Amino acid sequence: MAERKENDIVSSGLLQNDVIKEVISRSLNYLSAGYPIHFTGPAGVGKTSLALLLAKKRRRPVMLMHGNEELSNEDLIGAFTGYHSQKVVDNFIRSVYKKEENVTETWSNGKLLKAVKNGYTLIYDEFTRSKPSTNNIFLSILEERILPLYGTKQQEPFIRVHPKFSVIFTSNPAEYAGVHQTQDALLDRLITIPIDYSDEETEAEILSKKTGVSKEKAAGITRIVSSLREKCPKNSQHRPSLRASLMIATLAHEEGIPVDGKDEDFQQLCFDILWFSVSKGLDESDQSKIKNIVEDTCKEIERE
Ligand SMILES: Nc1ncnc2c1ncn2[C@@H]1O[C@H](COP(=O)(O)OP(=O)(O)OP(=O)(O)O)[C@@H](O)[C@H]1O
User: Fold this and answer.
1) What's the confidence (pLDDT) of residue 107?
2) Is there a domain that residue 265 lies in?
3) Same domain, residue pair 228 and 258
4) Which domain holds residue 81?
5) Ligand 1 mean position to 42 CA, how many Å?
6) In this structure, which of 56, 175, 267, 287 has its CB flanked by the most CB atoms within 10 Å?
7) What digits encode the pLDDT tens for the residues 25-61?
8) Can you tell me the mean pLDDT for 88-98?
9) Pocket of ligand 1 (CB under 6 A)
10) In this predicted structure, which of 75-84, 160-169, 252-261 has the lowest mean pLDDT?
11) Mutate to test the pocket of ligand 1, among 242, 246, 247, 273 (most ligand atoms within 8 A of CB)
12) pLDDT digit string (tens) for 124-133?
């Protein structure tokens, strides 16, 4: 593994191995050339963290938006949020009475409009969770470089996209079936880069640097989690991720639980954190079977 600067992970929050460095460098070039990037991969592999780091490197203000079923065009573009009224009553001279009343609607800009207008870097996390009809607006942004304002009662029909505006999408392919069908027209306009689990050595290094557990303990926890991950089918969206390893390492460290596969407290901790994803991943609802699988996997790591 290539030598890394000790403070890499501290300054960016992301440990950059050669694969990640490569992805960052290519993505930066694509964004600079005006193309949108799309990171796709399983949960917890670092897509959002990578998007945030990339956005930071663009040195433009960053706007973060999360896809969800309820997201509407109003959230993206903006909406009239109420009325503002102003009344002037002038009866300083008794015989003269003047009354003036102004009522104006108050408009507030949506997140997308702000980002497009001011040239921000937009991160649209888990975009496939939003309705395709909501995401359609990106077609005009990416193709015609305009944001249409139809249906908003705004005077202008559209606003032009700022030349520095860029967008990074993320998605989890395993979710496509359960969420919305991905929109091929939108995907056709994105440069899609797959992000997968890091190798065990890198995951252990992340764990040790982020939680303060020793390298050996981090390696042990990583081995348990990745071995359980391997037991689940590759297309399952419930395979245990680096997040689970981070939770186990943090709790073991803070609660003084020995990272020892034969220790009952450690086994219980691993079970509490891993049973749900393992039972979903293996499609096994019998808790005692899952407990045995987790315990057996724990015992495979040796006491330090
Ligand atoms: N290379 C890395 N260096 C340091 N931490 C990492 C790295 N990759 C992932 N992580 C950590 O793993 C956790 C999950 O990362 P992140 O949320 O970016 O994943 P994701 O792929 O976007 O997940 P999801 O699809 O569930 O949103 C975070 O705590 C993140 O800090």
Assistant:
1) 67
2) yes
3) yes
4) 77-109
5) 10
6) 267
7) 999 999 999 999 999 998 889 999 999 999 999 999 9
8) 64
9) 9, 13-15, 20, 43-49, 170, 172, 206, 242-243, 246
10) 75-84
11) 242
12) 999 988 888 8
pLDDT of 7 reads: 42
Please check whether residues 116 and 103 belong to one and the same domain. Answer: no
Q: What is the pLDDT of residues 269-303, one digit of tens each?
A: 999 999 998 888 888 888 889 999 998 899 887 54
- The CA 242 to ligand 1 mean position distance, Å, reads 7
Instruction: Name the closest-CA residue to atom 24, ligand 1.
Output: 43
Ligand 1 atom having least distance to the Cα of 195: 21
ipTM of the complex, rounded to two decimals = 0.96
CATH number, domain containing residue 68: 3.40.50.300
Q: Find the mean pLDDT for residues 129-156.
A: 84
Residue 105 sits in the same domain as residue 159: no
User: Residue 70: inside a domain, yes or no?
Assistant: yes
Are residues 57 and 160 located together in one domain of the fold?
yes
Domain boundary among 165, 194, 223: 194
pLDDT given for residue 236 in this prediction: 80
Higher pLDDT residue, 74 or 116?
A: 116
DSSP the chain: -----TTHHHHHSS---HHHHHHHHHHHHHHHTT--EEEE-STTSSHHHHHHHHHHHTTS-EEEEE--TT--HHHHHEEEEEEEEEEEEE-SSTT--EEEEEEEEEEEE-HHHHHHHHTPEEEEETGGGS-HHHHTHHHHHHHTSEEE-TTTT-SSSEEEPPTT-EEEEEE-GGGTTTS----HHHHTTSEEEE--PPPHHHHHHHHHHHH---HHHHHHHHHHHHHHHHHS-TT-TT---HHHHHHHHHHHHHHT----TT-HHHHHHHHHHHHHHHHHHHT---HHHHHHHHHHHHHTSPP-
Distance (angstroms) between ligand 1 centre and the Cα of 37 equals 17
